[in-house]
Design goal:
The structure holds 3 protein chains of 3 kinds. Chain A is an all-alpha fold. Chain A has one domain: NADH-ubiquinone/plastoquinone oxidoreductase chain 6, subunit NuoJ (Four Helix Bundle (Hemerythrin (Met), subunit A), Up-down Bundle), CATH 1.20.120.1200. Chain A is flat. The model of chain A has no long low-confidence stretch (mean pLDDT about 90). Chain B has a single domain, classed as Helix Hairpins (Orthogonal Bundle). Chain B contains 4 helices and no strands. In chain B, α2 runs antiparallel to α3 and α3 packs antiparallel against α4. Chain C is mainly alpha-helical. Chain C has one domain. The radius of gyration of chain C is 23 Å and the shape is globular. The two termini of chain C are about 45 Å apart. The model of chain C has no long low-confidence stretch (mean pLDDT about 85). Classes of the chains: A mainly alpha, B mainly alpha, C mainly alpha. Chains in contact: A-B, A-C, B-C. Chains A and B meet through α1, α2 and α3 of A and α2, α3 and α4 of B.
Chain lengths: ~80, ~120, ~240
């Protein structure tokens, strides 16, 4: 039962990673990257490690995404 | 194939690593390359954490209500340090990208060939 | 053409990787090589030797304390490097490209300002209780840093930066490295080697304050470092 849930989460992770690479709009890529971090946080929690899940949620979805958004707002928004 | 189906967690992290590697090699925009690098880093963390899975394992915190097979705490400690180091390199790379854009006006790597 | 070549190369590289991964010992069994070497000793003796119920905190602060010392040095070095790269534009080219201000909706402002005290209290709880529940120094510190970032986005950055005058900020940014240095030298003087914990004897009651000082140092240092990186990248120093 929990193996099926693991497989669904891995499929979501792989599709999020593919979408991050394919989109030409960098703002959309940053937001999909935040979703990728959030699903990775769920994977950590299912592996029995709440410490790593807290750190990944705070760092990945909290800080790294904001830094990406600041960089995109100070440089270009669309990829050529 | 049977061994690969048992180790599906390792295989998923290998696939994620190769997706991130494709972004670093084949994409021209520097911010896209940096996102690919972050995907590679989280794929490696997933691989190291997968070596610490114990089926039916509990979170490694002693106290009331903790049952016996604990998940392996050693990979978790290593990955905590790894996440902080990944944050540090991402912050420094993003500030370099801002500086490159202020100086040269572009962040596509084909236009940046041959500038000083 | 070039993309097809790169994809073919990566598919070719994935074959030995997936074959090797399939040959590893099966996931989930308790007689994996990673589970039978040092980890049973950590699990059984973490409470008596380290005084912490959270085994991961006991490992990163007690058994593998040098690694955490290196980690806080790495993030402090990253802050120094970011300030060095971005502050150099201030002196030679004047004010940099300003971000066009978008008016913030009153709903966002109300929600952020109402939730801030609860977020702060939760992160202080996580820092102080890190040794017996999930949490720890860096988790709580990053949440406070993210709170400062969100407050800077909702109100003006200058108002939030008034909370940290430069004379105070200079001493809070290396707080994690200084905390490790102080505890390390105290361990050197009291026990005998750098960053050693008092295991037996009459100084055993000092173990939990030992851990708490390091955790508070990592928390405060992490929060100010994350907020300073954001302010430097935004352009308001």
């Amino acid at each position: 039962m929990s193996r099926a849930f693991d497989l669904v989460l891995y499929a979501l992770l792989i599709s999020c990673a593919l979408m991050v690479i394919r989109t030409k709009d960098l703002l959309a890529a940053a937001i999909i990257f935040t979703t990728y971090s959030l699903i990775m946080c769920l994977v950590w929690q299912l592996r029995g490690s709440p410490d790593v899940a807290l750190t990944e949620a705070a760092v990945g979805a909290g800080v790294t995404s904001v830094l990406f958004l600041i960089t995109i707002s100070r440089t270009t928004r669309r990829e050529r | 194939m049977e061994g690969l189906w048992n180790n599906i967690d390792y295989a998923a992290s290998v696939v994620l690593f190769l997706i991130g590697l494709y972004a670093v090699i084949a994409k021209g925009n520097l911010v896209k390359k940096l996102m690919g690098l972050n995907v590679m880093e989280t794929a490696v963390f997933a691989f190291v954490m997968a070596t610490g899975i114990v089926t039916g394992g509990d979170a490694p915190i002693l106290g009331a209500g903790a049952h016996e097979p604990f998940a392996n705490p050693l990979p978790q400690a290593l990955i905590l340090t790894g996440i902080v180091v990944a944050l540090s390199t991402t912050a420094l790379a993003l500030s370099l990208i801002i500086r490159i854009y202020e100086r040269h006006g572009t962040i596509e790597s084909e236009d940046l060939w041959g500038v000083e | 053409m070039r993309r097809a070549f790169v994809i073919a190369l990566l598919v070719l590289a994935s074959v030995p990787l997936l074959y090797g991964v399939g040959q590893l010992p099966p996931i989930g069994s308790t007689d994996n090589p990673t589970y039978t070497h040092v980890v049973p000793r950590y699990i059984q003796q973490a409470e008596e030797e380290a005084g912490a119920e959270n085994i991961v905190t006991a490992i990163i602060l007690n058994y593998r304390g040098y690694d955490t010392n290196g980690e806080v040095t790495v993030i402090f070095t990253a802050l120094v490097a970011v300030l060095g790269v971005l502050m150099i534009t201030r002196s030679d080219s004047g004010p940099s490209v300003p971000i066009s201000p978008v008016p913030v909706s009153p709903v966002t402002r109300f929600i952020v300002r109402t939730l801030s005290p609860f977020i702060l209290m939760f992160s202080v709880y996580m820092v102080l209780y890190g040794h017996s529940s999930p949490g720890g120094g860096f988790q709580g510190g990053t949440i406070v840093g993210a709170l400062l970032i969100v407050l800077s986005l909702v109100t003006e950055s200058a108002d939030v930066q008034r909370l940290l005058p430069p004379a105070v900020k200079v001493w809070l940014q290396p707080a994690a490295v200084l905390a490790f240095g102080v505890i390390g030298i105290a361990g050197l003087l009291l026990v005998g080697s750098y960053l050693a914990f008092p295991v037996e004897g009459d100084l055993v009651f000092l173990r939990v304050p030992w851990l708490t000082v390091i955790e508070v140092g990592i928390g405060v240092g992490g929060a100010v470092i994350v907020a300073s990186i954001f302010w430097a990248m935004e352009g308001s120093a």
